[in-house]
Amino acid sequence: MYEYHGWVTIAATTSGDDDAALLERLVDRVHRAVRDAGTLDLVDLRWSAGMPMLHLGGLDKHGGAIAPELLETFTRVGELAPGSYGLLHVWDDQDPDHDNEFRVFRMARGVVCEHADAHLTPVAPTVLDVYEL
């Protein structure tokens, strides 16, 4: 099973005072990017308190097909809107190196890097009673 949950606050810059017209254009570009990622389950892009936010989530029997598209889409958002920040949590029980752990992809200043998860890892016994390889 491949499970993913993520969010991004979309921003053009890290100054906190983005030009409204520029931000609208960036949100349009992000919208096109996530629209083109057709295999993702939950994709919710909306404005909240004057800030654009993106939420991603879903489950897939085999992450092999969806994983590259998901990470590419998450990374693309940071490239389009370099002031953006957020987290993407992924658990792929078929990953031979990380099958019993969540991985976290952190976006800060539009740049994505991968980290170990300290909150839900190891999946067994933290989330599940047992986990068999």
UniProtKB/TrEMBL annotation:
<dbReference type="InterPro" id="IPR028965">
    <property type="entry name" value="Imm7"/>
</dbReference>
<dbReference type="Pfam" id="PF15585">
    <property type="entry name" value="Imm7"/>
</dbReference>
<protein>
    <submittedName>
        <fullName>Immunity 7 family protein</fullName>
    </submittedName>
</protein>
